[in-house]
Amino acid sequence: MTSNRQGNSRPAVFLDRDGTIIEDRGDLSDPTQVVFFKDTSSALRRLADHFALFIVTNQSGVAKGTITIQDVQRVNDYVEEYVASAGAPIVSTYVCPHQSSSGCKCIKPNPYFLKEAEREFNIDLQRSFTIGDHPCDVELATQVEATGIFVLTGHGRNHREEIPSQTIVAEGIREAAEHILASV
Question: How many CB atoms lie within 10 A of CB 120?
Protein backbone atom coordinates (compact mmCIF):
# COMPACT_ATOMS: atom_id res chain seq x y z
CA MET A 1 0.00 0.00 0.00
CA THR A 2 1.42 3.39 -0.88
CA SER A 3 0.78 6.58 0.93
CA ASN A 4 0.34 9.98 -0.65
CA ARG A 5 3.82 11.45 -0.20
CA GLN A 6 3.63 14.11 -2.91
CA GLY A 7 4.05 17.72 -1.91
CA ASN A 8 3.74 18.55 1.75
CA SER A 9 1.78 15.56 2.98
CA ARG A 10 1.15 15.53 6.69
CA PRO A 11 0.28 12.92 9.25
CA ALA A 12 -3.11 12.79 10.94
CA VAL A 13 -4.84 11.37 13.96
CA PHE A 14 -8.18 9.73 13.18
CA LEU A 15 -10.34 9.74 16.30
CA ASP A 16 -13.32 7.61 17.10
CA ARG A 17 -16.02 9.78 18.71
CA ASP A 18 -18.17 7.85 21.22
CA GLY A 19 -16.13 6.19 23.94
CA THR A 20 -12.90 7.86 22.82
CA ILE A 21 -13.26 11.64 23.04
CA ILE A 22 -16.77 11.71 24.55
CA GLU A 23 -18.60 9.29 26.80
CA ASP A 24 -20.48 6.58 24.93
CA ARG A 25 -24.06 7.27 25.96
CA GLY A 26 -25.78 5.42 23.13
CA ASP A 27 -27.31 7.13 20.11
CA LEU A 28 -27.04 10.85 20.79
CA SER A 29 -29.85 12.93 19.36
CA ASP A 30 -28.94 16.27 20.92
CA PRO A 31 -25.70 18.10 21.77
CA THR A 32 -26.84 18.50 25.39
CA GLN A 33 -26.25 14.75 25.78
CA VAL A 34 -22.52 15.08 25.00
CA VAL A 35 -20.12 14.57 27.91
CA PHE A 36 -16.43 15.00 27.09
CA PHE A 37 -13.76 13.03 28.87
CA LYS A 38 -11.84 15.42 31.14
CA ASP A 39 -8.60 15.17 29.14
CA THR A 40 -10.11 15.47 25.66
CA SER A 41 -9.47 19.17 25.06
CA SER A 42 -5.91 19.25 26.37
CA ALA A 43 -4.94 16.01 24.61
CA LEU A 44 -6.35 17.12 21.26
CA ARG A 45 -4.80 20.58 21.59
CA ARG A 46 -1.37 18.98 22.03
CA LEU A 47 -1.95 16.65 19.07
CA ALA A 48 -3.14 19.52 16.85
CA ASP A 49 0.31 21.10 17.07
CA HIS A 50 1.72 18.21 15.00
CA PHE A 51 -1.17 16.39 13.32
CA ALA A 52 -4.31 17.04 11.32
CA LEU A 53 -7.26 15.83 13.42
CA PHE A 54 -10.22 13.92 12.00
CA ILE A 55 -13.19 12.16 13.55
CA VAL A 56 -14.31 8.86 12.01
CA THR A 57 -17.49 7.51 13.56
CA ASN A 58 -19.91 4.68 12.91
CA GLN A 59 -23.45 5.85 13.71
CA SER A 60 -25.64 2.84 12.97
CA GLY A 61 -28.51 4.42 14.92
CA VAL A 62 -29.33 6.32 11.72
CA ALA A 63 -29.96 3.07 9.83
CA LYS A 64 -31.86 1.65 12.82
CA GLY A 65 -34.06 4.75 12.96
CA THR A 66 -33.18 5.69 16.56
CA ILE A 67 -31.50 8.95 15.45
CA THR A 68 -31.46 11.00 12.26
CA ILE A 69 -28.48 12.10 10.22
CA GLN A 70 -29.43 15.66 11.24
CA ASP A 71 -29.14 14.62 14.92
CA VAL A 72 -25.68 13.21 14.22
CA GLN A 73 -24.67 16.39 12.39
CA ARG A 74 -25.81 18.63 15.28
CA VAL A 75 -23.84 16.52 17.76
CA ASN A 76 -20.78 16.50 15.50
CA ASP A 77 -20.99 20.26 15.00
CA TYR A 78 -21.05 20.72 18.77
CA VAL A 79 -18.09 18.38 19.28
CA GLU A 80 -16.10 20.18 16.57
CA GLU A 81 -16.92 23.64 17.97
CA TYR A 82 -16.03 22.57 21.51
CA VAL A 83 -12.61 21.16 20.68
CA ALA A 84 -11.85 23.99 18.22
CA SER A 85 -12.52 26.52 20.98
CA ALA A 86 -9.88 24.66 23.02
CA GLY A 87 -7.35 25.03 20.20
CA ALA A 88 -7.86 21.68 18.48
CA PRO A 89 -9.64 22.17 15.16
CA ILE A 90 -11.09 19.07 13.51
CA VAL A 91 -10.29 19.07 9.79
CA SER A 92 -13.28 16.89 8.93
CA THR A 93 -15.73 14.50 10.56
CA TYR A 94 -16.64 11.36 8.64
CA VAL A 95 -19.83 9.50 9.51
CA CYS A 96 -20.95 6.05 8.46
CA PRO A 97 -24.74 5.91 9.03
CA HIS A 98 -25.06 2.23 8.08
CA GLN A 99 -25.40 -1.00 10.04
CA SER A 100 -22.50 -3.44 9.93
CA SER A 101 -24.67 -5.95 8.07
CA SER A 102 -25.24 -3.51 5.18
CA GLY A 103 -21.91 -4.24 3.50
CA CYS A 104 -21.27 -0.55 2.91
CA LYS A 105 -17.79 0.63 2.00
CA CYS A 106 -17.56 3.33 4.68
CA ILE A 107 -18.12 1.44 7.94
CA LYS A 108 -15.03 0.91 10.08
CA PRO A 109 -12.77 -0.98 9.74
CA ASN A 110 -13.03 -0.29 6.00
CA PRO A 111 -10.49 2.46 5.20
CA TYR A 112 -12.82 4.41 2.90
CA PHE A 113 -12.79 7.63 4.95
CA LEU A 114 -9.06 7.48 5.61
CA LYS A 115 -8.47 7.18 1.86
CA GLU A 116 -10.80 10.17 1.36
CA ALA A 117 -8.74 12.20 3.83
CA GLU A 118 -5.54 11.09 2.12
CA ARG A 119 -6.80 12.37 -1.25
CA GLU A 120 -8.65 15.46 -0.11
CA PHE A 121 -6.22 16.75 2.52
CA ASN A 122 -2.88 15.26 1.40
CA ILE A 123 -2.56 13.02 4.46
CA ASP A 124 0.36 10.62 4.84
CA LEU A 125 -1.46 7.58 6.18
CA GLN A 126 1.68 5.62 7.05
CA ARG A 127 2.70 8.36 9.49
CA SER A 128 -0.82 8.61 10.89
CA PHE A 129 -2.65 7.14 13.89
CA THR A 130 -6.11 5.96 14.82
CA ILE A 131 -7.48 6.08 18.36
CA GLY A 132 -10.57 4.16 19.41
CA ASP A 133 -12.30 1.92 21.91
CA HIS A 134 -13.34 -0.88 19.53
CA PRO A 135 -11.22 -3.46 17.71
CA CYS A 136 -12.40 -1.99 14.38
CA ASP A 137 -10.55 1.24 15.21
CA VAL A 138 -7.26 -0.66 15.51
CA GLU A 139 -8.01 -2.76 12.43
CA LEU A 140 -8.74 0.46 10.53
CA ALA A 141 -5.14 1.56 11.14
CA THR A 142 -3.82 -1.79 9.96
CA GLN A 143 -5.74 -1.43 6.68
CA VAL A 144 -3.63 1.62 5.73
CA GLU A 145 -0.35 0.82 7.50
CA ALA A 146 -1.00 3.47 10.15
CA THR A 147 -0.61 2.92 13.89
CA GLY A 148 -3.68 2.06 15.94
CA ILE A 149 -4.07 2.93 19.60
CA PHE A 150 -6.75 1.19 21.63
CA VAL A 151 -8.24 3.11 24.57
CA LEU A 152 -9.85 1.48 27.59
CA THR A 153 -12.55 4.14 27.90
CA GLY A 154 -16.00 3.56 26.41
CA HIS A 155 -16.24 -0.10 25.39
CA GLY A 156 -12.47 -0.60 25.50
CA ARG A 157 -12.30 -2.69 28.67
CA ASN A 158 -14.96 -5.02 27.25
CA HIS A 159 -13.01 -5.61 24.03
CA ARG A 160 -9.41 -5.66 25.24
CA GLU A 161 -9.03 -9.41 24.70
CA GLU A 162 -10.08 -9.01 21.05
CA ILE A 163 -7.17 -6.82 19.96
CA PRO A 164 -3.77 -8.05 18.75
CA SER A 165 -1.18 -8.36 21.52
CA GLN A 166 1.22 -5.88 19.85
CA THR A 167 -1.41 -3.10 19.91
CA ILE A 168 -0.65 0.03 21.91
CA VAL A 169 -3.19 0.21 24.74
CA ALA A 170 -3.89 3.47 26.58
CA GLU A 171 -6.08 4.23 29.58
CA GLY A 172 -7.71 7.09 27.68
CA ILE A 173 -7.22 9.93 25.24
CA ARG A 174 -4.50 11.67 27.29
CA GLU A 175 -2.30 8.58 27.43
CA ALA A 176 -2.96 7.86 23.74
CA ALA A 177 -1.83 11.40 22.89
CA GLU A 178 1.33 10.91 24.97
CA HIS A 179 2.18 7.75 23.00
CA ILE A 180 1.70 9.61 19.73
CA LEU A 181 3.65 12.69 20.78
CA ALA A 182 6.56 10.52 21.88
CA SER A 183 6.97 9.62 18.18
CA VAL A 184 7.31 13.25 17.05
Answer: 10
